[in-house]
Amino acid sequence: QVQLVESGGGLVQPGGSLRLSCQASGTISSIFAMGWFRQATGKQRELVARITSGGGLEYADSVKGRFFISRDNAKNTMYLQMNSLKPEDTAVYYCNANIKASSSGRVYNYWGQGTQVTVSS
Fold it and tell me: Distance between CA 19 and CA 9 in Å, rounded?
């Protein structure tokens, strides 16, 4: 019922920029914290950035100053603006959110399907 749909991934050259989007759909009562994770080949999934419902921000040290997370609560959408991309940013990026569905009245943690970001020349 509740689903996270991602878009915006792709191939970009070092120093370039990408903007990822994640839209939550379904009968949603509330969306609490949302975040972006990434998983590079052979590595564990790691938190990239997190944003609370009140706008509190958290970034991984590796992306501070380059990546910027935001959300549009009216559209149930979260964004990740990625600037000055480096080859080490190459990974599958996943959308994550804590969502209370209207039908169940319970809060669950949801994951998007993941979108590939490749930074290479």
Answer: 8
**Predicted confidence (pLDDT) per residue in 81-113, tens digit:** 999 999 999 999 999 999 999 988 899 999 999
Longest dimension (CA), the chain: 47
Q: CA-CA distances (angstroms) from residue 58 to 14, 26, 64, 114, 118?
A: 24, 27, 9, 20, 23
Report residue 23 as tokens. 């839209």
> What are the CA-CA distances from residue 84 to residues 42, 107, 120 (Å)?
23, 35, 12
